[in-house]
Amino acid sequence: MPQAQRIYLDHAATSWPKPEAVYAAVERYQRELGAPAGRGVYAEALEVQDQVEQARSGIARLIGAGDARRVVFCYSGTDALNQAILGTVRDGTHVITTVVEHNSVLRPLGALEDAGRIRVTRVGCDASGFVDPAEIERAWLPSTQLVVVTHASNVTGAIQPIRDIGVVAHRRGGLLLVDAAQTLGEVPLNAGQLEIDLLAAPGHKGLLGPLGTGLLYLRPGVEPEPLRRGGTGSRSQSDRQPDELPDRFEAGNLNVPGIVGLAAGVDYLHQRTVERVRADSIVLTNRLLAGLASIKGVRLFGPPPGEQRVGIASITVDGYDPQELALLLDTAYRVQGRPGLHCAPLMHAALGTLDHGGTLRLSLGCLSTADDVDAAVAAIAAAAAG
Fold this sequence. Notes:
Blueprint: E1 7-8, H1 20-33, H2 43-63, E2 71-74, H3 77-88, E3 94-98, H4 103-114, E4 119-123, H5 133-138, E5 144-150, H6 162-171, E6 175-179, E7 198-202, E8 214-218, H7 256-272, H8 274-293, E9 298-301, E10 312-317, H9 322-333, E11 335-336, E12 338-340, H10 345-351, E13 359-363, H11 370-384
Parallel strand pairs: 1-11, 3-4, 3-5, 5-6, 6-7
Antiparallel strand pairs: 2-8, 7-8, 9-10, 10-13, 12-13
Helix pairs in contact: 1-7, 2-7, 3-4, 8-11, 9-11
C-alpha cells in the first residue's frame, strides 16, 4: 500500500517545505562559493558578502527599517532574544512581561531574577490569550526599564496589541522588545509604526530560511551591550570590539549557508508580498477553525476566526492525550502537528492545559493548501469518532 502524502502542519516550529529558491541558494553556496562573509576580497568572498547584505536589506524593508545596518544577524530567535534581554537590562531594574511568552523570554528573565539582579512582573491574559495594555501600565514601577511581549502567541495564535503596549512603554520612559517569531514574514509589520524598540525573530519560520538563522532589529538610539566579542573582519588592528553596526553584534563567522538561504526566502516574500501571504493565511485559518469546530469532542483554544490571530489552532480531543493524538495522526494519516506545552508553560497554565499534557497544535505556513487543511480536519474527525 502506498504511503499517504505527508501533511506538514508544524510551521510554528519551522517552515517546510521552503521555496525552491531557498534550496538552490544554499546548495550553490556550498558547492560553488564556500567563503566566509566579510573575510576576503576574492570574487567568491565578495559575492557572499553581497548576499548577506541583500538578506539584511530585504529584512529591513520588510519591517520598515530605514537603516539596514540596524538588522543584526543571530543564530536563532532565542539567540536574538537573549542578546536583546541580557544586553539591555540593567541590574536593579524592573521588567514587565506576560504569561503568553515562550521560554526564550521567560528563562533569560528568570535567570536574572533568580540571581537577584532584576524584578519581573508577568502580566496575565484573557481567555482568548490577549494581553490588556492597561495591565502593562498598572504593573509599571519607577524602576521599570523594559517590556517584553510576543507579537503572537505560539499556542493560541492571538496577535497582541503591540502598538498600544509600545505607547504605554514610551509614555512611561521604557523600552519595548517584541518577539516576532510567529509573525515576521506572515503578518505585515512596521517596527516604527508599532512603537517597537527591539525586535527579535528566527529566520526559519515565516521568513522561510534554514534553521540556525535569526535576527535582532535595534531602533536608532537603542544600543545593547554585545554578548559575544571576537573577530569581525573589520578594525582588526584593535583588540576591542568595533562600535559600528552590525559588526558590534556579529562576532565570529556568520552562518552564511543559512543566511544566503534566508535571503532567498525573504526575496520570495517580497515577490509574493506579506500582505498576500496574510490574506491567504486568514482564509485557510478560518477554514481550519471551522472544520475543527464542527467535530464533536474537539475543544479549540484562542480567539475566534478573523484578523486577530495567526495560522495556529491548538486543540484537545476527548479521550486523547495530546502526545497520543499526535502519534495517531502521523502514523495513520500522515498529519503532523506539535503536541505538548510548546515551550510556553505559563500560557498553558492560563488555559488550564498545563497539567493535562498541553494541546495539539496545528500551524499553517505560506505554502499550506486547502487540501492540507481538509486532510487534517478529516483525520481528526476520524480520530475523534474512535
